[in-house]
């Protein structure tokens, strides 16, 4: 990407064509502090990953670029393509200006900015990204910042190449004067300092509670807070800057690891908080398996550190986003179940989870490219997590008051049970509560006072925050004070949607309808099922058909394809035909797609036959019904 080769003819072509190219809407640099790119810029998706700077300059000259959406963040959801951004700049002043281009997302695999001056000469301004050491950045910042200098009345075109394959593409961009760009970072760091302080306080608070009362819920919750803190620092590029600046690429997988661990931990905390068990909840077995699945999912990104594939990264990406939403939904369902059973303390967890749900939805929708805005600053996820952590930490202190009331209920029922046995139980409870009260008073009283002083010490740094954020800060301090008062009183979690209901054929028909509306290949779907298929086999067939479709889309270069599913008395026949370029089935067996098909055919004791040449490919699979 860094080697720029121009022939004289190409230079002449570029110079002449720039006048008629997409330059009718340049960014006019005047005395303003900040300038919008979305109102003036263009973009191009490089699906084949083969465009050079020469090519994109030619494309722009030929008006092949698409305009950015004014006022909207450049967001494409999950991507496996490269993207180019282009924008024209004109300095209207009689003096040179020092500007900075800023890409705010803090998470790009590779990023390179080029400058094309009015003489047709291209100047590379630096290659950076998460896959390079932090010191390689043109400007040492958590975000990606490029210094830009324009002479008096200079006109130039800038081209940005971005690689974020295997992740969601969400790229807020801006241009501003260098001083203003740097000053804008100060309140942002202050804001994250405040949120980090809240997370650290809640984590220490729960660790101290665990050390005093030996209740595992506090340990699990402290670990959950730690995972979410690392996740947020990863999202903002601060962990890469502060913790491991010489380990590029690690943050991509750390986010996945922390997200999966957090989902499982949050389910564990919910089970302990609402006292969910097999005898009082129909969801107990499911949540047990679900949280273990989340923890297993945290292992996959660790393995991806050594060797990974785009298809694996895509699968893990979507699974993690799905898990984040499903975890919160599962928790709400389980808590509502316990509330209906009379467990009133579950209302605390319900309210805390609803706060988190709003932030998770905002974050996931932005990640998937469905939306491109944040409900609150710095983003909905951070605010939602902070509100959930504060409220739930407060609720954990109320949990002890609930236990106290529970004891009173047990005392009222004392006469209904054996007196001696009940007395023994209550005496043991009283002794334990006495010990807990003593430990809380002796160990936590002074420590909580110090923590409160440390948190309020940040008060002079919040002067730059908005009124709403100051109100939130004040509420946080009030909540901490309430927690301290309460403590003093105590001492004194892939299946297609609706698959089981709709069935294999209906799901596939819907998939082909979507492919024909949005894809370049015309798919025909032929089916004839004379006998019902058991659900397990339906799922396996669905997976195989999906792999066949994916292979056709990615490798065949076909314009038409036909998928057939026919059932007979003793077997089911699946046939996929396309008019593509074909391949050698004897040598091209190493792809993960064909390996998945072969393994599923073997599992079902079936047979597969591939006939491929330059006129296309026909794959036939026969699966016995017995």
Automatic annotation (TrEMBL):
Question: Which residues are in coiled coils?
Answer: none
In this chain the Histidine kinase domain maps to: 435-626
Q: Which GO terms describe its molecular function?
A: ATP binding; phosphorelay sensor kinase activity; protein dimerization activity
Which PANTHER family does this chain map to? NITRATE/NITRITE SENSOR PROTEIN NARX-RELATED (PTHR24421), NITRATE_NITRITE SENSOR PROTEIN NARQ (PTHR24421:SF10)
CDD domains per UniProt: HATPase_UhpB-NarQ-NarX-like
Which species expresses this protein natively? Pedobacter psychrotolerans
Name the keywords, alphabetized.
ATP-binding, Kinase, Membrane, Nucleotide-binding, Phosphoprotein, Signal, Transferase, Transmembrane, Transmembrane helix, Two-component regulatory system
Q: What class of enzyme is it?
A: transferase
Return the PROSITE patterns for the record: HIS_KIN
* Gene Ontology CC: membrane
What is the E.C. number?
2.7.13.3
Q: Which Pfam families match?
A: 7TMR-DISM_7TM, 7TMR-DISMED2, HATPase_c, HisKA_3
Name of the featured protein: histidine kinase
**How far does the signal peptide extend, from start to end residue?**
1-21
Transmembrane stretches, start-end:
192-210, 217-233, 253-273, 293-312, 318-336, 348-368, 380-397
């Amino acid at each position: 990407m860094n080697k720029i080769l121009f022939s004289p003819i190409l230079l002449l072509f570029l110079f002449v064509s720039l006048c008629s190219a997409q330059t009718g809407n340049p960014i006019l640099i005047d005395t303003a502090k900040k300038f919008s790119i979305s109102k003036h810029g263009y973009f191009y998706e490089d699906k084949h990953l083969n465009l050079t700077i020469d090519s994109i300059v030619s494309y722009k000259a030929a008006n092949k670029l698409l305009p950015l959406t004014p006022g909207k963040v450049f967001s494409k959801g999950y991507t496996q393509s490269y993207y180019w951004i282009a924008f024209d700049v004109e300095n209207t002043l009689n003096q040179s200006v020092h500007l900075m281009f800023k890409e705010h997302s803090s998470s790009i695999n590779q990023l390179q900015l080029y400058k094309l001056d009015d003489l047709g000469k291209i100047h590379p301004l630096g290659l950076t990204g998460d896959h390079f050491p932090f010191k390689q950045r043109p400007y040492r910042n958590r975000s990606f910042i490029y210094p830009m200098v324009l002479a008096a009345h200079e006109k130039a075109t800038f081209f940005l190449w971005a690689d974020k394959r295997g992740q969601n593409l969400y790229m807020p961009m801006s241009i501003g004067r260098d001083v203003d760009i740097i000053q804008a970072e100060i309140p942002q760091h202050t804001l994250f300092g405040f949120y980090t302080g809240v997370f650290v306080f809640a984590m220490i608070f729960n660790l101290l509670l665990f050390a005093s009362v030996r209740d595992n819920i506090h340990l699990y919750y402290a670990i959950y807070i730690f995972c979410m803190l690392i996740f947020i620092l990863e999202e903002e590029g601060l962990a890469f800057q502060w913790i491991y600046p010489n380990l590029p690429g690690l943050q991509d997988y750390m986010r996945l690891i922390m997200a999966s661990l957090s989902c499982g931990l949050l389910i564990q905390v919910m089970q302990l908080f609402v006292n969910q068990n097999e005898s009082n909840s129909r969801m107990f077995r499911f949540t047990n398996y679900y949280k273990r699945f989340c923890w297993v999912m945290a292992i996959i990104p660790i393995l991806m550190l050594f060797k990974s594939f785009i298809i694996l990264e895509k699968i893990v990406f979507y699974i993690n986003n799905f898990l984040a939403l499903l975890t919160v939904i599962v928790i709400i369902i389980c808590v509502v179940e316990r509330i209906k059973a009379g467990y009133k303390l579950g209302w605390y967890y319900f309210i805390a989870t609803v706060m988190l749900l709003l932030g998770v939805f905002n974050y996931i929708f932005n990640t998937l490219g469905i939306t491109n805005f944040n409900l609150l600053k710095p983003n909905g996820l951070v605010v939602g997590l902070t509100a959930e952590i504060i409220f739930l930490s407060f609720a954990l202190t109320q949990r002890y008051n609930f236990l106290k009331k529970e004891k009173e209920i047990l005392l009222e029922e004392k006469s209904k049970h054996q007196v001696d046995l009940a007395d023994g139980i209550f005496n043991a409870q009283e002794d334990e509560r006495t010990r807990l009260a003593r430990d809380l008073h002796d160990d936590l009283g002074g420590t909580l006072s110090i923590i409160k002083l440390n948190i309020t010490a940040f008060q002079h740094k919040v002067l730059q925050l908005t009124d709403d954020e100051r109100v939130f800060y004040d509420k946080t301090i009030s909540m901490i004070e309430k927690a301290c008062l309460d403590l003093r009183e105590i001492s004194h979690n892939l299946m297609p949607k609706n698959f089981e209901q709709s069935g294999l054929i209906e799901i596939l028909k819907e998939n082909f309808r979507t492919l024909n509306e949005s894809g370049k290949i015309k798919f025909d779907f032929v089916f004839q099922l004379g006998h019902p298929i058991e659900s397990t086999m339906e799922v396996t067939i669905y997976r195989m058909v999906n792999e066949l479709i994916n292979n056709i889309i990615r490798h065949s270069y076909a314009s038409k394809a036909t998928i057939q599913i026919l059932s007979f008395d003793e077997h089911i026949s699946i046939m996929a035909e396309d008019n593509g370029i074909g391949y050698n089935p004897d040598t091209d067996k190493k792809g993960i797609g064909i390996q998945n098909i072969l393994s599923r055919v073997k599992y079902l004791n079936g047979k597969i036959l591939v006939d491929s040449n330059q006129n296309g490919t026909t794959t036939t699979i026969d699966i016995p019904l017995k």
